[in-house]
Amino acid sequence: MLEPLSRRTFLKGTGAILVTVSIVGSMPGVAAAAPLQQQESSGSPPPDQLDSWIKVQADGTVKAFTGKVEVGQGVRTGLSQIIAEELDLPLSSVTLVMGDTDLTPDEGYTADSGTIRDAGPRMRAAAAEARLTLLGLAARTFGVPLQQLSVSNGVVSAPGAGSATYSDLIGNQNFSVQLTAKVTPFGLGPISGTATPKDPSQYTLVGTSPGRSDLRTKVTGEFTYVQDMRVPGMVHGRVVRPTGIRSKLVSIDGFKDNIPGAQVLQKGDFVGVIANTEWDAIRAADALQVTWSDWNGLPDMADIASVLRGAPAVNHPASQAGDVWQALDVSESGLSATYETPFEMHASIGPACAIADVQAEGATVWVATQGPHPLRVDLSQLLDMPLNNVRVITVEGSGSYGRNGADLAAADAAIMSQLAGKPVRVQWMRHDEHGWEPKGPAMVQDLQGGLAPNGDVVAWRHTVWTPPHFEGIALGTGEPGGNNLDGTPYRSSYPAADLIGKKVGRPSPGAFNTPVLTYNFPNVSLLQFDQSDFADALITDWLRGPAQFQHTFAQESFLDELAAAAGQDPVQFRLKYMTDDRLIAVLNAVAQAANWETRPSPNLEVVNARGSVVTGRGVAVANRDGTLVAEVAQVQVDRSSGDIRVLQFWAAQDCGLIVNPKGVQAQVEGNIIQATSRTLREEVTFDSSNVTSLDWRAYPILTFPEVPQIQTILINRPDKPSSGVGEPTTCPVAAAISNGVFDATGVRLRRLPLRADRVLAELQAAST
To answer: Residue 499 has what pLDDT?
Structure first.
């Protein structure tokens, strides 16, 4: 087995240094104990203990622990920089353990651009507390005031009294220091101790760009992804998929071909096969004869907007100000528009994979999940096993950009392992990933705006219809009573989860579900209607910039429509209604970098020019959870074919304190490239029973020759907390591109993706 000794078990057997002794000079006391507001211990290391976060090894290096995971965005390096900075250690002396439910505190999901924003301050507080504790031990050892000590590279020095390494002071022993930990309805909040972290003016490592610790082995092919893992006694499994998303099992009629060692595993409507080799498992799944009931519950793709508008829904008022209807009635000029965005895929290049070893005494699951601790709760429900007997170990896989099929592959492997009594590896195929991963929800949005005679905006109305963006596919209940927050059970559409028949219900943060308006208008109405009809069929879940990517496409495009109607420059029009100095700064920065020409859109000289290929520029902004972004896109449109080519992007971003500038730049670029692909290419297709876009031809993505040039302008604010960078620059991309097309052609595109055939049809319709 590849299961190391439990850290909880190890800590029980080691000695403990209780830092409660008197020292010469002044030293803050150990932080007072603070009770955690949670029902019971999950079995993971408690977040109110310093030993749960930091351990000094016998060789003087430090091992740190976080429940967050690395999904290819470089957060392992960023968090390690924070730890090394506070402990005055070289970066190479810090090892970060991530996402192992037996070894790391429960920090929920790695999502919402929250790792550096949320986990960073926790690691900073823990490392600062560890440093203070170590200085206290050194002060006692040397008999000098704590203030006379200095630290360099993990060595504490006392003038005239000698020096000691961290390992000399506490190597391989417990700190036994209590922290204050706050638990919120959404998970773990801040932790704190008695130490004051460094002032940013003292930083020597944070704010620099050391090379990522994981890239060399990934580039050379030495890195071990979850797809590369093997455990002793392991067999290979494949799920046999139903013909319709909610089809029921009628009968299993055996293998049509003889495949030595193949075995059928069935529980409820879940059907799988295992074999000794992966190829035999593939053959067995194809050879198994299964009869399913008919199911045709999906609506006509062409009628998605009507379905979303007409389905029962929950109204989430986002913002109300003034009297919108009266303002619209008396406005000199009123505009209205409808924007539509499709279901989308995470479309991870590497399909999901998981290994599970489920025995009577416990279960261990290796998977590239974004939420090892929440998944652990789900698996304990799925397997009907005590929570403390389930261990989830995160092993990197393909990037997920939200929640892809990883957790569902873990469920497949866990069920098959429990039925087979041996470790089972489940590797999804491309058609599994495209067909059965959770989808980013579709959305239809109506906007209305009113203009005064001088061109000022006097009214803004924005109404949204969409399936939930923050439901999450849960394999168990995860909540007391096993129901949604309103008490009603919820069935998933995934066969493994159907064995439980319940789904987690969670509060919906505003930034995930409801529109966020970045402008100050006198009369505003923002409403969102969340409906769940599609969630009974197409599983919906987070996809990079959940909901706000779609909201920003509509808002920033419609604001451009108002600017055009007022005959005003799009940048200057936005600045009139901004009150956030930081947002104003990023918009001015990107306009300067792009050499923005102040004039109204569209560019009539270009629109009226001869020739099929025209060029324009568009601007858009966003505020995602405190990260401010402004972007300018330069686009090229072939009016004879409808093909759009994005030539260049300029992106200015203010994310507070920047921990690793190159890491942030890489995130900006990745966001823009993926969002450009979503804008121009990506749309899930389905018939009445199932998803039909099951390969890269049916679900095309941006190719390398189509990637735009990207210039990044980063505004560092060391006096502000770090905010997220994993999602914000995704949000304005579609609007910036669409606004650029309008600037070049005078035609407004309001439906994604901006495929050539649709664009050509809009151009032709506008010319008649």
So the answer is: 53
